[in-house]
Each structure stands twice: as C-alpha cells, then as structure tokens.
Amino acid sequence: MKPGPAHRTRSSRPPLAEIVFWLVLAAGFWLWPSYLPLASQVLIAGLFALSLDLVLGYAGIVSLGHAAYFGVGAYAAGVLSKSGWGEPLSGLLVAGLCAGATGFLTSFLVVRGKDLTRLMVTTGIGLLLFELANRLTGLTGGNDGLIGMEMSPVLGAFRFDMYGKVAYGYSLAVIFALFLVMRRLVNSPFGLSLRGIRDNPARMVALGYPVHRRLIAMYTLAAVYAGVAGALLAQTTQFVGTDVLSFNRSAELMVMLIVGGTGMLYGGLAGAAVFMVAHHYLSGINPTYWQFWLGAFLIAIVMFGRGGVLGACLRLERAWRRRMSRSAAP
Amino acid sequence: MITSLLGVLFDGLAYGMLLFLISVGLSVTLGLMNFINLAHGAFAMLGGYVCVLALQRWGLPFLGALPLAFVISALAGLLLERVLYRHLYHRSHLDQVLATIGLTFMAIAAASYVFGPLQQPLQVPKFLSGQVSVLGVDVNVYRGFLLAVGALLTVALTLALERTRFGAAVRAAVDKPRAAEALGIRVGLVFETTFAVGCGLAGLGGALGVQVLGLDPAFPLKFIVYFLLVVTVGGTSGIKGPLYAALLLGVFDIAGKYYVPQIGAFVIYAMMVILLVLRPQGLIGRK
C-alpha cells in the first residue's frame, strides 16, 4: 500500500522549508552563541514533545504521564555514568532501551480502555514512578538528585564544555537522526494505519488491522524517544532530579505540543521553542505571571485556535497562496 | 494495637468523607456530561481561601464561614459554567483536558498572587479542637465533626436526588438527556444547577479540609488525582459508588502512610492503576 497523492502533498510539504529549518538550527553556533545552553534545552524538549506527538497526535492516546519514560531514560543515563560508564552514545542507547522496556510493559495497561481511563492510567504510571524515584534514594539520590555524573567526551573527541557548544551539537545531531527516522515512519503504511486508528478505531478493526499491536508498538517507540530525550538532558546537564518524573513536566509537555500543533512532526519542535523561550523571559519577570498567562493561552487555544502555532502559520500560508492565485488568474 | 487500628480507621473515614464531599460534584459532571474537569480542585481551593479570609479578615465564626464558602464556590461554578464549560460539553476529551488544565494554572497563579505561596494557617474554634476519649479510644473532635457533617450531607444528597422533583429531573437528564428534554425538563438548567451545587460542595469540602489537607496554591494539582480516583473507581451512577470509593481510599491512604510510611503514596497509585485496568467502569458502576 502506497500513500496516496493527497496524503503526500500534506506530509512532505516544501522540503525547502525543512532544509532551511535544520540549517538554521545548525547555524545556531553562530546565530545565538551565548544562548546555546537554552537552545539545547529547547531541542531536548522538542524531542520529548515529538515523542508525545507520536502518542497523542498520531495514535490518539491522551497521556498526562509521559514524563515517566523521560525520567526512566534520564535516570538510566545518570546511574550508568555515575557508576563509571561515561561514554555518551552507548549511554543514550541503554537509556532508550530501558525507557522502551518500561513503555512496552506499561503499554498493555494503557491501550485498554477509553480516553478517561487512559488519562488516569498514564497519570497513575507517572505518579508511581515519581514515588519510586523518591523512595529509592540509594539509586536515585531521592530529593537531593543524582550528583556526580562523569561524562566522557562525545566520540572520544569532543569534551562537554561550559559554554554548551558540544552539548548543543550533540543534542542537535541525535535529534536530527531520530527525526529522520520518525519522518520516514509516520509517512509509511504503519504511520498511516495509526492515523486510521486514531480517527476511527472500530473501522480499523473491521478492516483487519491489529489495532492493539500497532498501538503498543507506537507507544513503545514513543517511550524510547522520550527516554533518549531524558538521557540527553541528564548527560548535557550532568544532573538528574526527581522533577524529571513530575506531573508538571507531563502537563507542560502537553502544553508545548498543543501550542505547536499535534500530528505535524514539527509541531513539537515549534511548540517547545515558543514555550521555552516564553518561559525563559516571562518567568524572569514573575513566575506567577507566567503561569497565569500560560493558562489563559491554553484556554484561548482550545476556544479559538486550532492546530497551535504551526496550524496558524499553515492557515496564513494557505490564505496567502489563495490570494496570490486569485490575483494571478484574471 | 487495636486502639491504633481504630484510630487509623477513624482518621481514614474522616479523610475519606472529605474526599467524598469534594469529589461528589466531579462525579456529577463526569457522569452527567462525560466531561473531564481537571479544574475541580480549584473550586475546593476557592472554598478554603474564602473560609480563611472569613475567619481572619472578616471575623466570621467558623460555622458561619462554611456556608459562605459553599455559596461563593457555587456562584463561581455558575459563572464559569456560563462563560467556559458550556462551550466544552461537546468538544473532544483532549480539549476539555487542556482548557481545564489552563483554568487550573490560572487559579494557582491567582491564588499565589493574592495569598502568597505559603500554607494558610487556620484556627478551628475551641469546641472543635482537642481530643475526647470514646470507649477508651482517643478521638480527634474535628475529625468526628467531619464525619458527622459528611454523613448529614450524604443523607441530604441522597434524599434530594431520590425524593424530590428536581432529583428526578437530574436522574432523567443523566439517563436520557434527549428524552428528558422532550418531556419538558430543561436539561441545560438542570446541568447548570447541578454543576453549581457540585462546585459549592467542593468549596465546602475545601473549607472543611484546610485543617486536614492543608491549603496552598498548589492544592488543585496536588489533590486532583485523588478526586479523579474517587470518581473513576466509584463509578458515576448515584452517590453510593463515590462514597464507598472515597471512604476506601481515605482508609487505605491513611493506613498506608501510618503503617508503611516508607512506600507512602505508592499503595494508592498502584491500587488505582490496577483497579482501572481490571474494572474500567468503576467498582460498582454499571457497564
């Protein structure tokens, strides 16, 4: 089964814009040299939001506990490096596998039931892991956090520096690679079948698709991505606190993705950028101020705007094209 | 051993009663309109702050502050139902989750702007504080008071739902909104009133719970899991389900924290996930 032409025009919209997007990110070393640590945080949050997009935007599972897998990845990478294995790439791999295993095991609980049950189960799983990290002080350091991570240089050549240059390049390279995989995947028949499940599960069952198995596969994969994001955060900041598993992180993640737009791949990255930069500046003025307007903004998005920032851009672009073609026609 | 067991049971029941009072309104919105309201805890918080203000600034007696907390929370519920909630009834669950999380964020920010981020102290009147000995067990008077109020309200709610004309209208609107509408019941008005009463009860619960649950701006997020748990475990049909679920939850939570403090809230969350997976329709709910 090949993706139809209608689908193709939507998913692989001007590749030029995509190339420019990644080139700008790569040029970040010169464009925002003094903000590289913030930029790495944005990238990591973007990868995490991409992971939620797989679950929410493509598979249609509303989750408020996605930080569980982020946290598992972060702790896996942290504990690994603390116990003497400081090689970053293999650390990422192990963290991704740990998070993926957790995701696979919990996915059986999640894919049962409907929206509310799923919401509650994912929240419950997140809270469970948070409590666990809080209690297992021997492993996680509990409330004090995991201190004393020692990272080896990336590829044996690039040592993590205090200006965040290596951290930025490392995060960008990892995220770019994972993004390419994801881009290929969501446009494959597998990705299309997931969208079908999201929009009409009963029909997909009737068509003979193994709905549960597809959802479990996607959920597991999303957990791997979340775990890698968590591991990236742990490795680049060389610290893990229990907040990696907190409910707030899951809720803010949801906000980022919604702000950016769901089911569009770039929505997560765009949302993370808008969210983190706004957070950086507004909470500098006053933290409560920030939370209030974030709430108001969420309500406004639900009431008035569909598809988030990216959706609004696309609408603008479409309107502009229509106008161009109209003025060109007569 | 026995006395500590009885003490834990008593505390747990009082705690559960409080959870029930706060959550019963949520079970109505979830059951009636299948509406996910994550901002429900904000109404409880509002009630708590009204109570604190009434006692400390306006010099009202505690027993006078409680009805005030009910009324103001109910009015806030009514207002928000008209402005916001009404437009979300027919939207997707994701939209409901987002909008109500947004509302929760706004409530938290507003509360910490007005009252500051610290826990609010509350002095309950003399006749409600201290301990009395009943059959050799030391009983906290305030917890006894909570149980009494809870029991009273449960009876009143049951009677209102099963014996009054309005209660019949509510039940009809739950079961078949369109048929109820056709029979001349103004379903919108019924929903609106029930929603307001639910918010009022949450406010009352919040006011009563300042002593037990504490009160700070993070309240709505801290306890929302418990409230949702009461509803999802209790099912959404009638009053009994949420009541049993709340009492069970209260006793388990207190017992867990008392006997195995090292695992703490772990018990509750594990119980929740297992129950949800085994019985998604609730403990005694209908299919």
Give the arrangement of secondary structure elements.
The complex is a heterodimer of chains A (330) and B (287).
Chain A: H1 5-11, H2 15-26, H3 28-31, H4 36-58, H5 67-82, H6 88-110, H7 115-135, H8 137-140, H9 165-186, H10 189-199, H11 201-206, H12 211-237, H13 247-260, H14 266-285, H15 287-303, H16 308-328
Helix pairs in contact in A: 4-9, 4-12, 4-13, 4-14, 5-6, 5-7, 5-12, 6-12, 9-12, 10-12, 13-14, 13-16, 14-15, 14-16
Chain B: H1 2-33, H2 40-56, H3 62-83, H4 93-115, E1 131-134, E2 137-140, H5 141-163, H6 165-175, H7 177-182, H8 187-213, H9 219-234, H10 240-259, H11 266-278
Antiparallel strand pairs in B: 1-2
Helix pairs in contact in B: 1-5, 1-8, 1-9, 1-10, 2-3, 2-8, 2-9, 3-8, 5-6, 6-8, 9-10
Mean pLDDT of chain B: 83
Task: Please state the oligomeric state of the protein chains shown.
Answer: heterodimer
Amino- and carboxy-terminal Cα gap of chain B: 41 Å
**Low-confidence region ranges of chain B:** none
Count, helices of chain B = 11
The CATH topology of chain B: ABC transporter involved in vitamin B12 uptake, BtuC
Unreliable stretches of chain A (pLDDT < 50, length at least 5) are 1-11
Task: Tell me, rounded to a whole number, the average pLDDT of chain A.
Answer: 83
Structural class of chain A: mainly alpha
Structural class of chain B: mainly alpha
Overall helicity of chain A: over 70%
Task: Classify the beta-strand content of chain A into a percent band.
Answer: under 5%
Taken in chain order, the helices and strands of chain A follow as HHHHHHHHHHHHHHHH
CATH class of chain B: Mainly Alpha
Number of helices of chain A: 16
Helix percentage of chain B: over 70%
Report the principal-axis shape of chain B: globular
